[in-house]
Amino acid sequence: MNLKSLDLNVRTEVGLAPATTTSAGTVDGSAIDTRGWHWALITAQFGAISDTSTCVIGYEHSDTTTSGDFSDVTGADYTVVATADDNLIRSILVRLHGRKRYGRVTATVGGTSISVVRAVQVHLYGSVDTENVASNINVTVL
Fold first, then answer.
1. The pTM is what?
2. Each residue of 2-12: b (16+ CB within 10 Å) or e?
3. What is the CATH classification number for the domain harbouring 108?
4. How far apart are CA 27 and CA 14, in angstroms?
5. How many domains does one find in the chain?
6. In the chain, what percentage of residues exceed pLDDT 70?
């Protein structure tokens, strides 16, 4: 792939905005339209994690953008545990072929005395639908 074609073959979306979570529960990202893409690389960056916290980053899919319609993609999750995983970047690669049109990232936090700092990006790769992608380009070619 040359640099000129790279701009049509990668799109980056915010999976979950940078935040510090201090209570147990699940945070859902916004729906991302994955039509025309082959792969989603979910990249989660973690800062400080308290000794008693856990955080599971997962990927869900749906035929609609309605929150209640999303379901887990089996195997598309990663768990970080306490201070052992401080300041790490973890990735999940999801093949989109055969998946539903919309995807989203979730973060489920548990434990006591919770403090988890995180940010998650979704990188869509391998577009075969350049018309769909053309209006969503956010890569600068130097």
1. 0.82
2. eeeeeeebbbe
3. 2.60.120.260
4. 13
5. 1
6. 83
